[in-house]
Amino acid sequence: MRQEKTYRIKKRQKQMAKKKNNFSIYWIYAILGVGLIAFQLYMGKSERESVKMQTLLEIADNAGVDNVTIINEKSAEFHLNKEGLELVKKSEDAELKKLNATIKESKETDKTKLLFEIEKIDQTYLSQELKDRDVAFEYEERVDYFGTILSYLLPFVIIIAIWIFVMRRMSGGNAGGGGQIFNIGKSKARVYENGKTTNVNFSDVAGLEGAKEEIVEIVEFLKNPSKYTELGAKIPKGALLVGPPGTGKTLLAKAVAGEAKVPFFSLSGSDFVEMFVGVGASRVRDLFKQAKEKSPAIIFIDEIDAIGRARGKNNGFNSNDERENTLNQLLTEMDGFGTNSGVIILAATNRADVLDGALMRAGRFDRQIYVDMPDLNERKEIFEVHLKPLKLEENLDVDFLSKQTPGFSGADIANLCNEAALIAARNDKKRVDKQDFLDAVDRIVGGLEKKNKIITASEKKAIAFHEAGHATVSWLLEHAHPLVKVTIVPRGQSLGAAWYLPEERSITTTEQILDEMCSALGGRAAEQLIFGKISTGALSDLEKVTKQAYAMVSIYGLNDKIGNISYYDSRGGDMFTKPYSDDRARIIDEEVSKMIESQYERALELLSANKEKLTELANKLLSQEVIFKEDLELIFGKREWETNTAEETPESKEESAEPKEEEEKKVLTEPIDGVDDQTDASKPKKDIENENELND
Questions:
Q1: Per-residue pLDDT tens for 400-419?
Q2: Distance between CA atoms of 183 and 652, rounded to whole angstroms?
Q3: According to the model, what pLDDT value does residue 109 have?
Q4: pTM of the prediction?
């Protein structure tokens, strides 16, 4: 430890000495240039007393001037004789008094030798006046050779000096970004050191226990390296934080900056992108140069996919040589021919599938830490952090709030708490209560309530039966998500909504997906059953079931005719080519169509068998506008099935494949399901549910 500490101290001393001796020859050039200009100004400055031409003529009227020299027809010089000195001494004229004061201050013993100057003259007028007064004068031509040469050469010297300076600064980027013109190649990273911190610690990061454990280990290695080096362990060179937006990747990095007690460089991947060629690579060099000088240090690159995208994909459409050059330089700095000891790289992205394979390998990013959406217990911890600054009602049930927000990220929960406080303040409450949080969930998931939207009576009736159809089918199906409430109050782009509380599943069966599809088609089936016609209100429902059907057939292998085949490409292959033939594409389309139509017919059968209850529910919805689970229990009775949330076990984690896990969370673990139904025909609605997207 002592040897390591002594080595660091000596290294810092060498760096300080190098900075002190860093004297540039440009200072010598600058001093010489300033000296030449000052010399010229000094030589050009007259040491003679300047007088006015009328003062000269007044003295000449009294024969006080013996001889006048006209220089270059621009100025004149003259001496005063004894008569002139007496005149100046006795005169009461202000100009002559001033001239007399100058004569008295002069150290010259013979005052007649004092030289006086008229700076600007009219040569013709002055010569004529002097002739009239019989004053002798002469012409003289004087040439300032040094000043003339300098006036011609100085502009060229300045232009050449600027050109040399610019060229050297531009070429200086090869040795580091700071050498370029205007420091355009210099790293834009923010540095946290010498007490400067983000004011975020690991105690401020709720949930994320697995990710936090691995990050804390890196910080502990920096604080106490001997604990690990004694066993022969090496510090990880890099850690990549991967996960959906809002899960806390950047927050973890802020906590590292607050806890590490070593220089922390923070910047975004887009900070390397510039319109000038070579700037990105230069900034990478300068960043690592600074980090090595201050090692041990941590570099955090947020949204690294801005420069880390895989090379060579879709070259004809998406090539960017400058970005690839920047990536190549980053790869070299992270693990190239030179050593990079003492610098740890942290990076964050939500698009790990598009990153270059060379960037992801061990030796550059030794650890890939997946930051997933928080589960029930983690959401509770996150709520406890964000509820601290709020004035809450007594005995607020945090468990209830965490159960009402499946699929919410940490950022969503922070926004929910703030929105609840705003709603409470809007209603002039002194404390934030449970209803404020429920209203905030509605506001975030469904959008702003539009109380003044004009809807005709026939449209309102169609919306009511549409939403009642959703509620009825989902209530009668075993695997459909539990219903929370149904409303026909317009919110956001939706004219009505059926709200569900989805189960937090680790895996999903074919029956569960089919029940979800049938429930989504219940709205259109109700319109067909009651009115004998359908409308455009089921746009988002059709979008949802179509994506689910294609996912079942072409991704999850849940179709008997296609078999156990998945065309999912986790590496993000070429989007312009299909991994199957045209015949197979036709079969997939046919199977998808059969699957959707069969669930539509199934929904029609369920609604036909319960038409009276459907009508009763729709009429109740028309009168109350919002109905809850308890209202459905009065009409349909309690559900026959009890939904049990399967406990998460290590075995279930291992069984769920990567693409399957990601896609199922998108398809079936949505934040408060619903807000999916009636939409204006002219405005296709953004589906609130986090559905599966085939072309991810």
A1: 898 888 888 889 999 999 99
A2: 54
A3: 67
A4: 0.64
Cβ-based neighbour number of residue 12 at 10 Å: 12
- For residue 491, the 8-state DSSP code is B
Q: Which residue has the higher pLDDT, 23 or 77?
A: 77
- Residue 685: strand, helix, or coil: coil
* Spatial distance between the Cα atoms of 486 and 507, rounded to a whole number of angstroms: 27
- Collect all residues with Cβ–Cβ distance below 8 Å to 255 and sequence separation of at least 6: 198, 200, 201, 202, 204, 205, 212, 215
CA of 665: how far to CAs of 222, 244, 408, 519, in Å?
36, 11, 12, 19
Count of Cβ atoms closer than 10 Å to residue 19 Cβ: 9
Alpha-carbon distance of 522 to 677, in angstroms, equals: 10
Check: CB of residue 170 under 8 Å from CB of residue 180: yes
Angle at 195 between CA 191 and CA 197, to 5 degrees: 60
> Has 193 been annotated as catalytic?
no
Q: How far apart are CA 647 and CA 670, in angstroms?
A: 19
Residue with tokens 């005063």: 80
Q: Active-site residue among 259, 419, 467, 591?
A: 467
Cβ within 8 Å of residue 419, ≥6 positions away: 440, 443, 444
> Do residues 225 and 328 lie in contact, with contact meaning Cβ atoms separated by under 8 Å?
no
Supply φ then ψ for residue 645, to 5 degrees: -80, 120
> C-alpha angle with apex 221: 192 to 226, nearest 5 degrees?
125
Bridge partners (DSSP) listed for residue 627: 486
CA gap 468, 484 in Å, rounded: 13
Distance between CA 173 and CA 184 in Å, rounded?
A: 9
